[in-house]
Amino acid sequence: MAVLSTDIYEAIEVLLHDDIIGLPTETVYGLAANIFSDKAIQKIFSIKKRPAHNPLIVHLFSIDQLSLVAKNIPETAYMIAKKF
Prior knowledge:
By secondary structure, this protein is mainly alpha-helical.
């Protein structure tokens, strides 16, 4: 098993305590939060001055998690997710 940097452990602690972190993506820096924390999600909307009608992107570990964050999921979405 790989040894994780202490930065990873610090980030995990922050996320577990309803706060947000900044992290690099392939193109920009982004804000990240636990999608199941209303408090953390509201912080992102507030910091970014993002309108409530403009949804956030949610990254999932597996297709099995999709129903945890979405409703009325079309079969096409599952077909695409299984493919990619």
